[in-house]
């Protein structure tokens, strides 16, 4: 593999990739509604000479470069979040209450850049690009984009799969994790039912808001007081709905949130402890219900695939720009894909003096675009390494 030529070509793509990312950023689309994004992806891939198929997993795009076996897949998620952008950028979202606040616009751009780099090279085997819809949520049928890709055999004959995700590391660097990399997640809903009464006589009712406050306090003790300090876990209550009028004691409160774990017994322990926390409300006479909506599995990074990413990145970026990272409690439906074939996701550094502290899933999220050719070259170099060294 001629790394100097690859690096030169990647750097020459910088302005092209920035333009692509800004176009995608300005027109964000929700999960399974990525029609414009898919069209742009297909057109760009077609110009690179890739074989393109649209409408996979509803709005996804699958493309191939090369011929025959083995097949290495590169996956990029396309969907945005229902957030009103407040960055003030000249290419900020033009869609009300919709924004690329997680970097998926950069993920798509890096994968397109990898396709442009690979299209100029000859290699044995095939690189399959999976531009996946709806990573952020499941649809009404309980399916995310990765689940739909599996149903439509997008991983057929694939020997390994790689992906990236933006992260708070310096632009120009990447992070790698071997083994369990991202958490399993579940959505929780808690319903607390009390008894309404006049606000002037709370003793005649059963205040669901007051009880909910005590239940939340008990929930916040689970990770810090009920679990081992070395066990990675998160419980976040993120929504509260209750009450109908200022002079009416609330009869019902609904809490929503998320739990993150390493799956298996750790997940079961969290759910058991949530049920225990609800006993606080029941002791006051309230009826308390816990509903669990299963989320994504743990993302496991295969050791051999991770090593291919690590080695490739050290060659094209330098060893000092490859950072070993621990398990993180973010969750990704990429875990469905790595459960089927060996795969790994690496972290793409996107911070700089201009963007020193980006906050993911916030209205002011931004990233340093100098990271785009970095993501593209690491994806391309890793795919070539996996094909050439037959690590898969």
Question: For this structure, what is the CATH class of the largest domain?
Answer: Alpha Beta
How would you name the CATH homologous superfamily of the largest domain?
Zn peptidases
Overall number of domains: 2
- The CATH architecture of the largest domain would be 3-Layer(aba) Sandwich
Neighbour order of strands in the largest sheet: 1-2-4-3-5-16-6-15
CATH fold call of the largest domain? Aminopeptidase
Helix content: 25-40%
Gap from first CA to last CA: 18 Å
Number of strands: 16
Please describe the biggest sheet, giving its number of strands, its sense, and whether it closes into a barrel.
8 strands, mixed
What pattern of helices and strands is seen along the backbone? HHHEEEHEHEEEEEHHEEEHEEHEHEH
Percent strand: 25-35%
User: What gross morphology would you assign?
Assistant: elongated
Mean pLDDT: 97
Overall structural class, as computed from helix and strand content, comes to alpha/beta
Number of helices: 11
CA radius of gyration is 23 Å
């Amino acid at each position: 593999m001629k790394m100097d030529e690859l690096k030169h070509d990647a750097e020459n793509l910088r302005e092209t990739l920035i333009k692509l990312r800004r176009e995608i950023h300005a027109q964000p689309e929700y999960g399974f509604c990525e029609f414009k994004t898919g069209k742009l992806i297909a057109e760009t891939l077609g110009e690179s000479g890739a074989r393109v198929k649209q409408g996979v997993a509803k709005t996804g795009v699958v493309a191939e470069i090369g011929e025959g076996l083995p097949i290495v897949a590169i996956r990029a998620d396309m969907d945005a979040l229902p957030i009103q952008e407040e960055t003030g950028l000249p290419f900020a979202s033009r869609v009300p209450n919709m924004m690329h606040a997680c970097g998926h616009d950069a993920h798509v751009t890096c994968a397109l850049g990898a396709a442009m780099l690979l299209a100029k090279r000859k290699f044995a085997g095939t690189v399959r690009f999976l531009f996946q819809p709806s990573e952020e949520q499941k649809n009404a049928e309980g399916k995310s984009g990765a689940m739909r890709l599996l149903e439509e055999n997008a991983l057929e004959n694939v020997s390994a799969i790689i992906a990236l995700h933006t992260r708070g590391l310096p632009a120009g660097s990447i992070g790698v994790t071997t083994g369990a990399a991202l958490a399993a997640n579940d959505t929780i809903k808690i319903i607390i039912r009390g008894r309404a009464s006049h606000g002037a006589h709370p003793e005649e009712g059963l205040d669901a808001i007051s009880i909910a406050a005590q239940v939340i306090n008990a929930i916040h003790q689970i990770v810090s007081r009920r679990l081992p300090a070395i066990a990675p876990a998160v419980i976040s209550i993120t929504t509260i709905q209750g009450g109908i009028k200022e002079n009416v004691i609330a009869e019902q409160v609904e809490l929503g949130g998320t739990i993150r774990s390493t799956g298996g017994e750790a997940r079961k322990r969290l759910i058991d402890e949530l049920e225990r926390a609800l006993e606080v409300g029941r002791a006051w006479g309230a009826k308390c219900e816990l509903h669990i909506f299963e989320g994504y599995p743990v993302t496991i990074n295969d050791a051999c695939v991770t090593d291919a990413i690590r080695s490739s990145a050290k060659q094209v970026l330098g060893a000092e720009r490859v950072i070993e990272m621990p398990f993180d409690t973010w969750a990704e439906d990429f875990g469905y894909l790595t459960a089927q074939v060996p795969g790994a996701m690496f972290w793409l550094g996107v911070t700089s003096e201009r963007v020193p502290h980006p906050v993911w899933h916030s209205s002011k999220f931004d990233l340093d675009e100098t990271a785009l050719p970095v993501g593209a070259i690491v994806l391309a170099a890793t795919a070539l390494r996996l094909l050439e060294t037959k690590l898969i």
